[in-house]
């Protein structure tokens, strides 16, 4: 009977391991999740409360994760576990008693900035591709090589 319990517990632990791996693939960063329609959202639970602070909806997981990092940094200080610890400014003053609205505003600013930079970079690469490809609806001129 003890052997059956050991087999069952090892099977359930491997199932738990598989579920954990699947979650890590679905959620590349802490504090974010993906909506059914493809947008990434970030939110964080307020310390010692049941309520959550909504941090926004973003087109990339990196932008949502950066918004989460900003919020957790302002809530928990420099000892917080971050997705991108290299992007938090070390000279930033941390005030522990910021309101939820102020934290939401700071996080949304960072997330929107990252989203804008990524979409601008994506637009630049797409415009280069369009310029490089010839227009197939036009007749070639004699001057074009």
TrEMBL record:
* GO CC field: nucleus
According to the entry, every stretch annotated as the AP2/ERF domain falls at: 28-85
This chain belongs to which protein, by name? Answer: AP2/ERF domain-containing protein
Question: Which residues, if any, are the signal sequence?
Answer: none
What is the role of the protein in this entry? Probably acts as a transcriptional activator. Binds to the GCC-box pathogenesis-related promoter element. May be involved in the regulation of gene expression by stress factors and by components of stress signal transduction pathways.
Give a yes or no for keyword Transcription regulation in this entry: yes
GO terms of biological process kind? defense response; ethylene-activated signaling pathway
Read off the Pfam families from this record.
AP2 (PF00847)
CDD domains tied to this protein: AP2
InterPro entries named in the record: AP2/ERF_dom, AP2/ERF_dom_sf, DNA-bd_dom_sf
Top-level taxon: Eukaryota
Please list where the region (Disordered) is annotated: 1-30, 115-145
Location within or outside the cell: Nucleus
Q: Which UniProt keywords apply?
A: DNA-binding, Ethylene signaling pathway, Nucleus, Plant defense, Transcription, Transcription regulation
Source species of the chain:
Dorcoceras hygrometricum
The GO terms this record gives for MF are:
DNA binding; DNA-binding transcription factor activity
Q: Where is the composition biased (Basic and acidic residues)?
A: 17-29, 123-136
Sequence similarity: Belongs to the AP2/ERF transcription factor family. ERF subfamily.
Q: What is its main location?
A: nucleus
